[in-house]
Model the fold of this input.
Amino acid sequence: MGRKAIFFDIDGTIWDEKFQIPESTKQAFQMLKERGHLTFLCTGRTMSYIRDEHLFALGFDGIVAGCGTYIEKDGEIIFYKKIEPEILHKTLEFLKPYHYPVILEGREYLYVDAEAFGDDSFLQVLQDTIPEQLMPLWENEKCLEVSKLSIDIRGRECREVLKQLSDDFDVIYHGMDFVELVPRDFSKATGIACACEKLGIAHEDTYAFGDSMNDYEMIHYVKNGIVMGNGLDEVKAIADYVTSGLHEDGIYNALRYYALI
Done:
């Protein structure tokens, strides 16, 4: 078997809500490396929110971050799409009257209006895990470098409001909790396609693991789309293979199924 490229979502795929990575997953990554396959993170998180040493210890060859807006290989940036300042300013002005808790996500920093979040538990997680990457939003409006936005929508009806941003953004709903605003026509799938084009990886050699709606496009795009047993039914419906859950050796079992390890 020749060298393959495998793209991995993070949350709900590699680790759980407590950032725990199964031992079988760690073993599987070591086996992939020994067999010469390429491994990539493929995440909705931007680089400012990918800081965990236990995650990087898995030994990724590259990263597709920010829903396809950032790509690197062996630490070298090979693609980056940031939101144009005029579009970002227009979007923030549009959102201000609605007082949604918003996170602007860039390569170096996450920009947050902490007062809008109040005692929200997600903000607390950010403050506990990446405090150096958090910056005040409204104090930095003139020096933002951002490639996507996230909005806390719990308890808020916002579909009609956010639909008005569809000229500039694709809107990805994660249940009733939060929404991602990604530059229009960018996704994990476009990031994978760009990475493969620049690195000379054939489509027939691509695999992807995911579990949620921002994985939908990449699961559909790659040659072999694998969904975790704990994943959403909507994503499982388009999978080439549904493996066991994250803590039931899901990654290891799927890689064995495809004879990659």
